[in-house]
Design brief:
The protein is α+β, with helices and mostly antiparallel strands. It has helices at about 5-10, 65, 110-115, 130-145, 150-155, 235-245, 270-295, 350-385; strands at about 10, 30, 35-40, 45, 60, 80, 90-95, 100, 105-110, 125, 155-195, 200-225, 250-255, 265, 300-325, 330-335, 345. Bound molecules: zinc ion (2 copies).
Amino acid sequence: MDVATENALRELRERDLLRAPCLSCGSNLTFQAETQQLACGHCGATQALTFSQAKLAERPLSAQLASAELPADRVSEQLLFSCPSCGSRTRVNAEQPTLSCGFCGSRAINPEAQRTRLIEPAGVLPFRLERPAATTSFRTWLAGKWLAPNKLQSGAVLDNLHGIYLPFWTFDAQAYSEWRGERGDHYYVSVSSTDSQGRPTTRQERRTDWSSRSGTHEHFYDDLLTLASRSLANQQNHVEAVLDDYDLAAVVDYDARVLLGWEAEVYSIDLAEGLEEARTTFREQEHDSCKQALGGDEQRGLRVSTTLTEESFKHLLLPLWVCAYLYQGKLYHFLVNGQTGKVSGSHPYSPWKIAFLVLLGLLLAGAVYYFVNQYQTATSVSTDYQP
Ligand SMILES: [Zn+2]
Ligand SMILES: [Zn+2]
């Protein structure tokens, strides 16, 4: 970095950084997921943390707040981070909540990152899973994938496994729906006719009885989570799979110290966009409930009108292990819930196992065809003897 660029950049002052120096040796303390306290990687000294849950109240959604957008020049600002441990200077993005020295790896927390956003986190779910535990979760998950190649267990090379606190919105809302539609109930009637040789026959015919119904449905939706980051946009289904597993009762008041030694992100999907997504989910779930209330064997013309009231939100940081692994030159992604260890990800399929399955399917279909044929031959034989 040339001197002119360096001088042009605003310097992150050391006193603005959040660090937790070890009282015994001066090294940086980091947050330990297993013990839920700060510990020194150098001398082993520990420092207890006490968490509170006093400030976690839901915030009501005001029109002004919901329409506030992300600052337009948000990615452009860069800062100069002078490492408090070795003195090296690294250029960092102003929106990066956790900083890591490019030279000695020493980490610090940049409280300014949260100030680039209108809404600061209300709560954080501290990591529970350390790196070895996350790796074990991944290996166990992989072992359960029996359509994966046998060599995958030994051949998968983990690439850049990192623990990151990702930004989320949670939404609450009271939904009230009025619905109207027609339900069709099946019933059977005996129909008499004559066959080609003039003999009387009866057969069962299905009819549908249509009736108009209407009703109301209400439900209070609590803590619907939506991801406020775009960094996992290509893994949306995996995000949803591990999201369900978070126990939000363990969320504590936001305390930047649990970020020490980890990575974090500020939100890149603003409240308005997150809210839009949540409202769509609420309406879809209401529609499903009303569909169920209408019932019947068939339905037509179901109309649902949903009103959402008492909408509120919280901004949270939740822990996630994000990783990829290489297998035979190809990259596969997976995520591990940083609280529970639930894994979701992609994996290669063994062509041999797939071929075997297809063959097995064909054999089964062949066997079924054979026995059905046998049965039909048998019944047609017996009918021949009927008078
Ligand atoms: Zn120490
Ligand atoms: Zn350094």
